[in-house]
């Protein structure tokens, strides 16, 4: 049994990729029966449940979690657990889970690297120390420091942006664009563009910064998202996605892939992770950040001919898998709805 514990939206497509590989390659467990995929989550997530053979709800109380993991693994004969939301909790309990004969895949093997990747300023310092092309970043904690950073950086980088030093989903990101109409943040907030003066005034009137932020150059792009399978820092497979609105171009070689592999090595990545890059004014890619977890778009790669979830599990479990080759290179991102059984509609 392969167990996918709580993750982000990609938990569903990872399950789909694994079940496809089980069918196509006749993967079996020690008993000779076909492998199955178990998926669990703390919330009601029918789209994830529908993609698995077995679905469970995880406890919300952390004090119950280890018991839940060990008893569930014993009950279902789980051989490997993949966590879509890496956390210090799993690293603290890695030894206990491993002692039960379970392979644990979290994205890292050392919580120090998880902390490093989450701290964008510290991560940028690491990239600079390793001479990995990156986007410069200045951490600020006060409104005065922010004003100083903006003044200092604009002489070299006329276009700037700002975002929280930690966090996901791009929450809190703004492009500081002094040519933007004053009302743009109201009429088109999804563009995330705001005049510097408007941004500073809003901060001042709300009492200053509420959390550490980083100021960075705004790079024109294109932006690329590289999904990688790694074991102990060694990259087993990589697939990039070059973004252009709702269209994405898939690729498996090039400078962005090379940069992502260097990042994975430095962080001793272990699992299915993601590195993001963006091109500068000269067209040269620079690393933006690394997420030591699957990206939301990792499932798009299933259309390419390269099944990254399958590569990850085949390597850990010693399962047969034919060479994966890039066959299709363009996808369009669309919304999708799934039906919820009447017996479960009361959760809505």
From TrEMBL:
<dbReference type="GO" id="GO:0046872">
    <property type="term" value="F:metal ion binding"/>
</dbReference>
<dbReference type="Pfam" id="PF15632">
    <property type="entry name" value="ATPgrasp_Ter"/>
</dbReference>
<dbReference type="GO" id="GO:0005524">
    <property type="term" value="F:ATP binding"/>
</dbReference>
<keyword id="KW-0067">ATP-binding</keyword>
<dbReference type="GO" id="GO:0016874">
    <property type="term" value="F:ligase activity"/>
</dbReference>
<feature type="domain" description="ATP-grasp">
    <location>
        <begin position="124"/>
        <end position="317"/>
    </location>
</feature>
<keyword id="KW-0436">Ligase</keyword>
<protein>
    <submittedName>
        <fullName>Carbamoyl-phosphate synthase large chain</fullName>
    </submittedName>
</protein>
<dbReference type="InterPro" id="IPR011761">
    <property type="entry name" value="ATP-grasp"/>
</dbReference>
<dbReference type="InterPro" id="IPR011226">
    <property type="entry name" value="ATP-grasp_fam"/>
</dbReference>
<keyword id="KW-0547">Nucleotide-binding</keyword>
<dbReference type="InterPro" id="IPR052032">
    <property type="entry name" value="ATP-dep_AA_Ligase"/>
</dbReference>
């Amino acid at each position: 049994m392969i167990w996918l514990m709580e993750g982000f939206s990609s938990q569903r497509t990872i399950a789909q990729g694994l079940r496809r590989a089980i069918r196509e390659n006749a993967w079996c467990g020690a008993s000779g029966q076909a492998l199955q995929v178990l998926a669990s989550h703390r919330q009601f997530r029918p789209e994830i449940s529908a993609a698995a053979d077995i679905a469970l709800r995880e406890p919300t109380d952390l004090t119950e979690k280890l018991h839940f993991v060990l008893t569930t693994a014993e009950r279902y004969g789980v051989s490997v657990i993949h966590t879509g939301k890496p956390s210090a909790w799993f690293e603290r309990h890695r030894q206990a889970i491993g002692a039960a004969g379970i392979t644990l895949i979290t994205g890292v093997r050392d919580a120090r690297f998880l902390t490093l990747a989450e701290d964008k300023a510290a991560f940028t310092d690491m990239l600079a120390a390793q001479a990995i092309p990156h986007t410069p970043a200045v951490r600020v904690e006060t409104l005065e420091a922010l004003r100083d950073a903006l003044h200092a950086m604009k002489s070299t980088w006329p276009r700037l942006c700002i975002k929280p030093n930690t966090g996901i989903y791009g929450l809190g990101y703004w492009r500081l664009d002094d040519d933007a109409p004053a009302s743009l943040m109201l009429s088109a907030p999804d563009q995330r563009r705001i005049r510097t003066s408007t941004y500073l005034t809003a901060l001042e009137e709300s009492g200053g910064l509420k959390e550490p932020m980083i100021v960075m150059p705004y790079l024109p792009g294109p932006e690329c998202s590289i999904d990688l399978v790694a074991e102990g820092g060694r990259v087993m497979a990589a697939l990039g996605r070059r973004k252009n609105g709702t269209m994405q171009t898939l690729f498996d070689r090039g400078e962005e892939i090379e940069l992502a592999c260097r990042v994975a090595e430095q962080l001793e990545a272990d699992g299915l992770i993601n590195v993001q890059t963006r091109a500068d004014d000269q067209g040269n890619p620079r690393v933006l950040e690394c997420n030591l977890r699957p990206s939301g778009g990792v499932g798009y790669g299933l259309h390419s001919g390269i099944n990254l979830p399958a590569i990850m599990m085949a390597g850990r479990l010693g399962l047969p898998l034919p060479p994966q080759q890039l066959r299709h290179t363009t996808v369009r991102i669309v919304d999708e709805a799934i039906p919820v059984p009447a017996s479960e509609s009361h959760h809505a």
